[in-house]
## 1
Amino acid sequence: MAGPYTTLIDPKTLAAHIQKPGWVVVDCRFALMAPELGRQDYDASHLPGAFYADLERDLSGPRAPGLGRHPLPTLAAFRATLGRWGITRETQVVAYDEASSVFGSRLWWLLRVFCGHEAVAVLDGGLAAWKGQGLPLSQEPPTFRPIAPYRGGKPRAGATLDTDAVSAVVSGRLRRLLIDARGPERFRGLAEPIDPVAGHIPGAVNRPFEENLQPDKVFRDPEDLRAGFRALLGGRLPQEVVHYCGSGVSACHNVLAMVVAGLGETTLYPGSWSAWVSDQSRPVARRS
């Protein structure tokens, strides 16, 4: 087979492989304001053989003070989840959500960074693109007997920064460029529907994850993505970038987009804005 697929995969290519041994598809649909809706939509219809990943139960860990709304799962817990889905070092994984690829990108990031699993891709355009090509759906749950927790691989060094390190960036003690994946109204502090404080981390620049997508929710061409991110970099190296958002989820979309653009691996602030504002003494910027 061609591959492995390590960033994006289109619906026709996935359809040609979806029933083959060694392939696992994971439905990551989720609604922040209605957490059970993703599972309900999955039960109504999903890609044939797909497992369901709940953002809060499977792709996040327990909440704790200062860690933000969607803390990373522990490595042991995440490896056990992969075992439930039958994922091994040799598996080609494909993640998808409704259309935007935000939640699919979270699973992509976890596999790539936590486990060093290269063969993971996001279905470009998500379920909407799959439906748009008239490809089949199913209501049947996958038939599979869980295996042992995922073995091998280790977290990539330097893949994340914690809040103390981000504080060092803000103070100038650490040279990094913070890129905020939230919409401009939240970045500027004009609206905040989720977190208790509006605004952004001082010194950050804004790259809403939607700018990575065409109107049909398919990712822009690598050249377009590269030009957009280079304009933000202003001469800095891609390796200096730290992505954040509200809770470390949509920021993974920007991480993926920079890899698609050929700019390489960048860093995630998993706690993101929700962790930053958990301490009212931290500085907040607005309207820049």
## 2
Amino acid sequence: MAVSDITEAAQWETDVIGSSTPVFVDFWAEWCGPCRMVGPIVDEISGEYEGKVKFVKVNVDKAGEISSRYNVFSIPTMILFKNGEIVKQQVGAASKDQLKKIIDEAV
């Protein structure tokens, strides 16, 4: 499953807040070393949850409005949304097993 990039507030409202499927959001930036470590893990696990969870990435440099709305001050920050509400959040790099546990506990 592909991980989609969100940069527009309208797209955020449709793809994340309005989604009936849980959405795993990876807030990141190109210059962030830990983000570059977590990115491939997010890409990998997106395939394992195909049809159960949507995966999106938000570049904080291109979508500052969305990032500030959720008080994302440290990256990477991963937030799992269900029915438009935050159900789990991870600040800082995490292993594949840690991210899967976050998803499994909430889905």
## 3
Amino acid sequence: MLLYLSAVAQNTDTLKISLQQAQALALKNRFDIHANQYDIDIANNNIVKTRNEWLPDLSAGGTIRYNTQLQATLIPTGFSGSSQPQLLALGSKNTTIFDIELDQPIFKPNLTTDIKIARNDLATQEERNRAYEIEIKTQVNYSYLNVQLKALQLKIMIDNQNRYQDYYTVATATFKAGALLENDLLKAKLDYQNAQTESEKERQQYELSLKKLSYQLNISNSLNLVLTDTIIADKQILMEAAGPSRTEIRLLQLQQEDIKLQKQKIRQSNLPVISLFANYSQQFLNDNFNYSTTKMWSPFSYLGLKLNVPISLIFKNKANLKEFTLKDKQTALLLKQKNADINYEIQNATTTLSNAAKNMQTAKSNYDLSRLIYNTQKQQYKFGALLYRHLLDTEKSLSTAEQNYVKTVYDYLLAKTDYLRANGSL
């Protein structure tokens, strides 16, 4: 399996990787990306095939014909002193011809247009591949960010587990001192065990997210993936300039170019085609097959110009030209609509990302405040100044703040990816 060497950590079992490196690794490793490259090779080959249409059509051939019965020719009265018309069989039993023929187009304007069409097809295929690569990078983005999200959820669950462990430890000491009912001790123990179960569930989800990312990168699950990017609300991203033109726009523009070339080809097909043709032959005429008789061989040759004027095609092309004219108008409208859609998408993604970053920062502040309150009340609980059920009320508030924080982080990660995609920066 291919590996992005610059992303590999010090040992071969661990792969430290950033989001950008993960995208590059996926594009290098995935089989479908390599398979799509053959479409580019095919399109390049089609250009070569079209250019070859300018090459002369050179062929060599031969025919051997044996006349079992010679065709009679009419000899009119008076020819060579004949007193009456008569039939006379002329020719030879064996007619053998070996020839070389040449046909070279001189004026065929649609061949030049065919080359331009083939080049436009190549550009279209390249753009389709770029669109597919963007889709792969987007999926890698989602998978990478999902691992970050699951890691954060796991951390929060471990924190919960540690808190309930502290509760249970304090409850045990208080129970031994005779200041706590056994039922409250059992309740603290059950809460701690439930927290352990939830932490294990989150650990399993985290491991599944790693496996999915490994699948997206097309690497072995045995590698220990270590994500080097951190989850932060980067305001600077909102000021980034737009990336390359969106593939949807570029594909419609290439479609317009194809329609233009097709219309040009139709008009050119109404023009006459001029070509040069030539032939050189060696002919053998005899009643037998004794080809060693050199005096029976005779050469002949000819050359000329051929003019082919399409007549009925001119009338047929009117409908073809109208069809592409209508497609041209249709594509122009689709392009305008797509530009409007993308402009709205960019504006919406920018606003959503800005709001998501603010919401995440607010949720983080609330989360920090709830932890501060929790730590204060935990100390009160240790000193017996706060009942366990009252501490659980604070725990619920802390859990709500944690979940809100996780939700806002998730929303921010999705908004960030959507913004990059809408802006053409992926």
